[in-house]
Specification:
Order of helices and strands of chain B: EEHHEEE
Oligomer: heterodimer
Order of helices and strands of chain A: EEEHHEHEHEHEHEHEHHEHEHHEHHEHHH
Distance between the termini of chain B: 40 Å
Number of helices of chain B: 2
Strand order of the largest sheet of chain B: 2-1-5-3-4
Structural class of chain A: alpha/beta
Structural class of chain B: alpha+beta
Number of strands of chain B: 5
Number of helices of chain A: 17
CATH architecture of the largest domain in chain A: 3-Layer(aba) Sandwich
Distance between the termini of chain A: 64 Å
Strand order of the largest sheet of chain A: 4-5-13-10-11-12
Helix content of chain A: 40-55%
Number of domains of chain A: 3
Largest interface: A-B, 54 and 26 residues
Largest sheet of chain B: 5 strands, mixed
Shape of chain A: globular
Number of strands of chain A: 13
Radius of gyration of chain A: 22 Å
CATH superfamily of chain B: Beta-grasp domain
CATH class of the largest domain in chain A: Alpha Beta
Helix content of chain B: 10-25%
Shape of chain B: globular
Largest sheet of chain A: 6 strands, mixed
Number of domains of chain B: 1
Chain lengths: 419, 92
């Protein structure tokens, strides 16, 4: 049962049939999936959703597929962690982390969008799937393609973290690295998509793929007890997830699953790749591309295709945004790890670092419900923080040496007193 | 200056299905004007009503986004490689 009505250009409104198309032939604007919300409203309820398995397909009426899920049967429904220790440090009572570091099976938010894209690729009859990716997306496409039995080609820029290359090749995907940055990879892949007729999840399947990002927002609302947060901070690279989280919140209201006050949404970028934040702070619509330079490689996109829609969603909601420097990103990764036991990749460090700024600026108040979106796992980017953590002490295997060391560390007295 | 221009699928109905077409000009703007002469209708797909490159259109000159060069005034040499590519998303 499908609730999709058509594809529609976000710029000029031209309508298209449901097909593997991604840009408007008239103005090159991106295409967006349209739904019959009245029909969805009649078909869906909180109880019905809650009775379903704990994965992203529990919101299937609001996803752009016709039949059964062909990918991601265990993806999504990641924890919404109430951060009591981190909150106490920041004076925040209702601070949450939406923790996609543990998304199944590849430990990032990309498992959501790829589950939807691969399902759609099968519906359209594709046999080869592909993507242009800085890493997390590549890993997700490779893993989901393997499980779905599809051939897979992955294109990434040279210089991404080594683990991410291994993390795609291991699934049997053919990995090709491109001399150049992410924008160069994107350009080449658009040309390959045209010529070879493959399903590029973030090119010709983009309208469907991006819809998967809404599940991040659906889950946040459900996990808050079918309420929207006062504030949600979301990272921005190409600009996919932020507008889709905003869309998810609006859809939940539209179909009657959520009532009550509005949310504010905030964009977080790394200072070394912050074209959207520059435009936001200058109060302009035009996003001037930059050459990215940051440790946060998964969000190092200098020419964000959907950046304009990030600006629009942020402004519409009354939210804001900021950027974080590499040292701020590393500090935030360490802070989250040491207070909540969650190890985020640099994109997550960026989001938390920006949340800290917004709290300091008084834009987010201590008693307001705030969600920090953590979209990827730090175990994949150990290189980014390896130089910034304490080295271990080396001692001989003698108790006396440990006693002396423990004394030196200054914790000796406390330990003896509590013994 | 004679150049080759790679054209994405959505624009190929203007080029008789061709994915790569010849054009002439000494700047990107002139190349677009020349394309318009050869394939009427293509200019308004690339440029907005103010004559600027549309928000979702990227034009690459020898692999570099012309927005990083001199935009429509970027100089073009004989044999240069020009690609027209719709903006696409990646990352988060």
């Amino acid at each position: 049962m499908s609730y999709i009505t058509n594809l529609k250009c976000k710029e000029c409104g031209q309508e298209y049939p449901v097909a593997p198309l991604h840009v408007c032939e008239t103005c090159f604007g991106p295409l967006e999936v349209g739904y019959d919300y009245a029909k969805i409203r009649a078909a869906i309820s909180r109880e019905k959703i809650e009775s379903r398995p704990r994965n992203l397909w529990r919101y299937r009426e609001l996803l752009p597929v016709d039949g059964e899920a062909e990918a991601g049967p265990h993806s999504g429904f990641t924890p919404l962690v109430h951060c009591k220790r981190l909150g106490a440090e920041l004076g925040m009572k209702h601070l949450y982390v939406k923790d996609d570091t543990v998304n199944h099976p590849t430990l990032s938010y990309k498992d959501r969008v790829v589950s939807v894209a691969i399902t759609k690729a099968r519906e359209f009859g594709f046999t080869t799937v592909s993507c242009a990716s800085t890493g997390n997306l590549a890993t997700a496409v490779a893993a989901h393609a393997a499980r779905a039995g599809l051939k897979c080609f992955i294109f990434m820029p040279e210089g991404v973290e080594a683990g991410k290359i291994v993390g795609s090749t291991i699934y049997g995907a053919q990995v090709i690295t491109i001399r150049g940055n992410y924008d160069d990879v994107n350009r080449l892949c658009s040309e390959i998509a045209d010529k070879y007729g493959w399903a590029f999840v973030n090119i010709n399947l983009r309208p469907y793929y991006t819809e998967g990002a809404k599940t991040f927002g659906f889950e946040v609302a459900e996990q808050l007890g079918w309420k929207l947060p006062d504030h949600i901070v979301v990272p921005t690279a190409g600009g996919t997830i932020l507008p889709k989280v905003a869309k998810a919140f609006k859809e939940l209201k539209e179909v009657g699953l959520v009532k009550g006050p509005e949310f504010k949404i905030y964009s977080a970028q790394a200072a070394g790749s912050a074209p959207v934040i520059h435009a936001l702070h200058k109060g302009v619509d035009l996003i001037t591309p930059v050459k990215p330079d940051t440790i946060a490689k998964s969000i190092a996109i200098g020419n964000p295709a959907d950046g304009y829609y990030v600006l629009r969603a942020v402004r519409e909601s009354g939210g804001w945004g900021d950027s974080a420097t590499d040292p701020e990103i590393i500090e935030a990764i360490k802070l989250l790890a040491r207070t909540e036991g969650i190890f985020a990749e640099p994109a997550g460090g960026t989001t938390l670092a920006v949340a800290l700024k917004l709290i300091k600026q008084g834009r987010i108040k201590p008693d307001e419900t705030t969600v920090v979106s953590i979209t990827g796992n730090g175990y994949k980017t150990l290189e980014a923080v390896a130089g910034a953590i304490e080295r271990p002490f080396v001692i001989d295997a003698r108790l006396g040496e440990f006693d002396a060391l423990f004394e030196r560390l200054g914790d000796g007295k406390r330990a003896a007193a509590s013994a | 200056m004679a150049v080759r221009v790679r054209v994405p699928t959505p624009l190929r109905r203007f080029t008789g299905g061709e994915g790569e077409v010849p054009a002439e000009g000494s700047s990107i703007r002139q190349v677009i004007e020349d394309l318009e002469k050869r394939h009427a209708g293509i200019r308004e797909r690339l440029l907005d009503d103010k004559g600027e490159i549309r928000r979702f259109v990227n034009i690459y000159l020898n692999g570099d986004d012309v927005r990083f060069l001199d935009s429509l005034n970027s100089k073009v040499k004989d044999g240069d490689d020009i690609s027209i590519v719709p903006a696409i998303a990646g990352g988060v």
